Amino acid sequence: MTDSRHALIIANDRYEDQGLKKLKAPAQDAAALERVLHDPQIGDFEVEVVHNASADLMRRRIQGFFNERGRADTLLLHFSCHGIKSEAGELYLAASDTEPPLLAATAVPSQFVRSCMYGTRAGRTVLFLDCCYGGAFSRGSTSVRASGEINVLESFAKGEPATGRGWAVITASDSMEYAFEGGKLAENSGPRPSLFTHAVVEGLETGEADLDADGKVSLDDLYEYVYRHVQEQNPHQTPKKAAELRGELHLAHSRRGRIKIVAVPSPPSLRAAMNSEEFLTRQGAVTELRKRLQRRELPMAEGARQHLEEVARNDIQPIAELASDALSTIHLAPSPDHLDFGQAPKGSPPRKQSVTLNGPPLARHCLAQPKQSWLRVDPTQKGLDVHVDTTAEGRLSGDIVLKGVADESVIHVEAVIGPARETGPDTAPGSKSSDGPAEPTHGPDGKPDRVTAEHRRTPLRRGTQSKTSGDRTRTAAHQTRTDRSAPSRRAPTLAGAALALALAAVATLVLSIQAAVVAITERGDEGVYGNVEDNIREHGALTPLTVSLITGAVALVVGAIARHDLGARREHYTSKAASGTHTLTAVAKGLAIPVLILAVLVGITYLVGSAHW
Q: What is the C-alpha separation between 164 and 489, in angstroms, rounded?
């Protein structure tokens, strides 16, 4: 999320007035909503929570929240409290010190919230109302009006903002879910207000609210999800929405599905080439699609990916294999895919390690989803920074799931959080220390006892030795991790060898054909007394033919081994090495297969013709 995003959550569940003691969920609702909105992998909002505030404090916080904003800001205001309708039809939001007979003085009117919303310079404002509504006290009586429609949306959606780009209001219900009875709320009336907020939290946290699976949860997505969820739980409660927005408002990242990119289709000329009857024309089209796959323009690269997938499914095997080789370059390849943070004291600053995402831009375009709350991921130019929270003590083991356009990958993370280190001033000479007695022991002559002093120094040497040993262990572990993540050269080397063998097969086939041509020419000059078999052997045409067959077959085998190693250990290769391997093996295959076919045909021709000529 690139815009500045701010959220204010107001939750009231304790009221001084005896008639308002009903709500039990707002505190839990506020904590859960704060968690998902603040999570940088989900909402990425700066969140403030106001709990059980007075009416005066509520008004101050609300007005301060909307002031001093800019057009790039997105604001989200959430209420979880009682809503009370006055005799005049005005809706009020109950504070901790609200007195129902004195709503204008002790509650927050909807008109005040509406004026703050419409007066802000923020680009977009969203209001969530998770309230239970009741009627107001009649004058001179403790009785209240019967429940009915309260028209919550009309209380907040009158007119249009003077500035900004738009607003939206979503309410848990648009009717009074309970009524006061004798000055108190009915115990068996209406659903718990947590039903609405629970659906919001669940939809954002699981990603299930991303209905179109585009990697983002829009306001429309969230409303549709919450509406279905609430209706399934309580058909008598109907969430409502009113909005005046330009464009789509994305509230959160999705933890569901892979990243989706609107693809730019391949141009008609390229599609025509791909549909050609000529093998070489289609081969050239695949090469062009491979180039488009590497482009920085993600919509163009995604269009090439979809086209290559179609080719890999439907074309003949040689073309399909070329398309599959091109697609293999955009698989997610984090390096390293295993992070070991070692030991860290509890409460120490969060530890950080970096992960490089290899491959072209389309391969690096992914969504990182930590599966544990102690993991945090920040995107960087080359990949990801992984942070481990040291708040919880114990052995930690978790995963970060990477979801891209084509596949998924997992980064495994381990750490051990030990007891917090005790810090204090350096121990002065002769003072009490854990490594020796408080004061040196003196001998009969008044001098420090040598044995005691030596005994005091010995633990220091042991500690130094232990520290040195630990340093060597950490150095060895670091070297092991470095060696594990170092790029491999096996597949490119094998691919180069395959190409060399294929070229050798071509050369020996040419020599064999040249020798055969000379032998056949001599046999024609000899007339009826000659024997073509003797001429072939005399000019040594069979030996290079045999060598050509063997080297061509070996070239195919070595190339296949190179491709297999690249696919099995993709994380050990850089994108450049992977691309080079695919190119070399493709060229080797393109040379070796025709050589084998020609060599076999020449051999068959020799066996058939030598018996008759």
A: 56
Tokens of 194: 């947590």
Q: What is the pLDDT of residues 476-503, one digit of tens each?
A: 444 444 444 455 788 889 989 999 999 9
Q: Which residues of 532-569 are buried (b: 16+ CB within 10 A; e: fewer)?
A: bbebbeebebbebbebbbebbbbbbebbebbbebbeee
Find, among 377, 391, 395, 398, the residue nearest to 348 by Cα.
391
In the prediction, which pLDDT does 125 show? 93
Q: H or E segment at 237?
A: none
Q: Which residues contact 387 (CB under 8 A, 6 or more apart)?
A: 350, 351, 352, 375, 376, 377, 378
Query: Which tokens is 314 given?
Result: 């439907």
pTM higher than 0.90, yes or no?
no
Each residue of 27-39: pLDDT tens digit?
Answer: 777 888 999 999 8
**For 174-188, what is the mean pLDDT?**
47
Do residues 312 and 293 touch, judged by C-beta distance below 8 A? no
The closest alpha carbon to 29, from 241, 193, 185, 210, belongs to 193
Element (H, E) at 76: strand 73-85
- 3-class DSSP assignment, residue 273: helix
Instruction: Single out the residue of 28, 32, 51, 50 nearest to residue 42, CA to CA.
Output: 32
- Nearest-angstrom CA–CA distance, 202 and 191: 18
The DSSP secondary-structure symbol of 128 reads E
- pLDDT for 434 equals 39
Residue 433 pLDDT > 90: no
What are the strands, taking DSSP E only, across 500-553? none
For helices 194-206 and 219-233, the axis angle rounded to 10 degrees is: 130
Full DSSP string of 142-163: S-BPPP-B--HHHHH-SS--SS
Q: Mean of the per-residue pLDDT values for the chain?
A: 79
Mean pLDDT of 276-284: 92
